[in-house]
């Protein structure tokens, strides 16, 4: 007789987590309990889109006759994730709230307060887990490279990973939709959310403006020093950005920022060399399960990596920085667009089957 397991399932109201519920509910040895993590707005108001999400979760719970609970991590989210985002933006860097949300909220506070009472926690992330010959659990990539979300999970700890399962890792998105339609899930045709983790329909620039205000400054063509226009604050822009500059005759890309003088530097053209680089200097490297490389020779170690959320895994060589614990340099085989200080770079094995962890891009250019 199979031993029963209790599973906390994090649901969002979207089709992915609903299909997780459907798939797990087919196993009679699993006892499921659904949880929705509620986050309000930064001014303490409720989020209207959250009410719709919660109602959708209730419908799923009712369809499968499962217990459902709404839990609040409002203060923890704003005190940790969004305060990090504001600090990073104000420093002229590029934050990634989704990465911090996963490590601090979903698999941090939720696990400490609710998830720990269950054998495992399941989510709708497109990722997988791999057990090696020594019984160690590694974060694996998803079958669907376009939907793969391991870069958003690259800051979790090995202890957190031990308690997580990803039931969608082996499925392409089209199959997830097919299953949802076949199971007659109420959100089978619901569009995927595009917002930052938990922020829903909030306008990110409006959020930044509320907290940091506006500080007009010049937009300058880096090659000529010619002023092309004005921006409303360097914190609204990131390296590699093309849209939202309000410049004609483009395309224009943000290639540098001078935080002290509040200057945004741009370069024109899709192929402008100024928006590309091949060297990524990483600090605060954090490995999820273990350091896969140990001592690295001068020649370096081959790997693949992502410096932003794309389907591509870029090939390169990584080396340690002598005398600087936790610091590494990646030399990419190909040109990398928009290397933005403050962003996380997720690192993988050469075949990009395993996500080892992540480091933070350093070296903000100063003029």
What does this structure look like?
By secondary structure, the protein is an alpha/beta fold. Among the domains are: 5-124 and 167-182, Rossmann fold; 214-268, Roll (SH3 type barrels). It has seven helices and 17 strands. It has helices spanning 15-25, 48-64, 74-90, 97-113, 158-162, 173-182, 204-212; strands at residues 5-10, 30-38, 68-72, 120-122, 128-131, 137-140, 164-165, 217-221, 227-231, 252-258, 263-268, 276-287, 301-306, 314-320, 328-337, 344-348, 354-361. The strands form three sheets. A six-stranded antiparallel beta barrel has the order 12-15-14-13-16-17. A five-stranded parallel β-sheet has the order 3-2-1-4-7, sandwiched between helices. A hairpin with a 5-residue loop joins strand 8 and strand 9 (227-231). The longest helix is centred in the N-terminal third of the chain and has 17 residues, at 48-64. The protein is globular. The model has no long low-confidence stretch (mean pLDDT 91).
* Poorly predicted sequence stretches spanning 5 or more consecutive residues: none
CATH fold descriptor of the domain at 5-124 and 167-182: Rossmann fold
Average pLDDT number: 91
Please give the CATH architecture of the domain at 5-124 and 167-182.
3-Layer(aba) Sandwich
Q: Specify the CATH class of the domain at 5-124 and 167-182.
A: Alpha Beta
CATH superfamily of the domain at 5-124 and 167-182: HUPs
Query: How many DSSP helices?
Result: 7
First and last CA, distance: 69 Å
Helix percent reads 10-25%
Query: Based on DSSP secondary structure assignment, what is the total number of beta strands?
Result: 17
| Broad shape | globular
Structure classification: alpha/beta
């Amino acid at each position: 007789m199979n031993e029963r397991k209790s599973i906390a399932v994090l649901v969002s109201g979207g089709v992915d987590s609903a299909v997780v519920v459907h798939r797990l509910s087919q196993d009679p040895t699993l006892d499921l309990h659904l949880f929705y993590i509620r986050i309000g707005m930064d001014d303490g108001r409720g989020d209207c889109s959250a009410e719709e999400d919660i109602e959708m979760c209730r419908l799923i719970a009712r369809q499968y006759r499962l217990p459902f609970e709404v839990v609040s991590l409002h203060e923890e989210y704003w005190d940790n994730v969004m305060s990090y985002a504001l600090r990073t933006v104000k420093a002229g860097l590029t934050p990634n709230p989704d990465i911090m949300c996963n490590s601090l909220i979903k698999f941090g506070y939720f696990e400490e307060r609710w998830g720990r009472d269950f054998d495992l926690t399941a989510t709708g992330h497109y990722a997988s887990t791999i057990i090696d010959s020594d019984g160690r659990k590694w974060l694996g990539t998803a079958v669907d490279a376009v939907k793969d979300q391991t870069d958003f999970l690259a800051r979790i700890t090995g202890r957190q990973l031990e308690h997580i399962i990803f039931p969608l890792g082996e499925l392409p998105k089209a199959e997830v939709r097919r299953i949802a339609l076949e199971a007659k899930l109420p959100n089978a045709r619901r569009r995927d959310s595009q917002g930052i983790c938990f922020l829903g329909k909030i306008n990110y620039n409006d959020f930044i403006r509320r907290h940091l205000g506006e500080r007009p400054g010049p937009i300058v063509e880096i090659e000529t020093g010619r002023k092309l226009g004005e921006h409303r604050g360097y914190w609204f822009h990131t390296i590699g950005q093309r849209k939202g500059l309000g410049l004609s005759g483009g395309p224009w890309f943000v290639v540098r920022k001078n935080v002290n003088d509040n200057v945004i530097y741009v370069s024109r053209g899709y192929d402008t060399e100024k928006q590309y680089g091949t060297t990524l200097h990483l600090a605060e490297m954090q490995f999820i399960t273990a350091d896969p490389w140990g001592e690295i020779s001068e020649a370096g170690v081959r790997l693949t990596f992502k410096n932003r959320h794309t389907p591509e895994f870029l090939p390169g060589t990584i080396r340690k920085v002598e005398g600087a614990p936790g610091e590494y340099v990646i030399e990419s085989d190909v040109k990398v667009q928009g290397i933005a200080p403050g962003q996380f770079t997720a690192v993988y094995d050469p075949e990009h089957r395993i996500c080892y962890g992540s480091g933070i891009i350093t070296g903000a250019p100063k003029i």
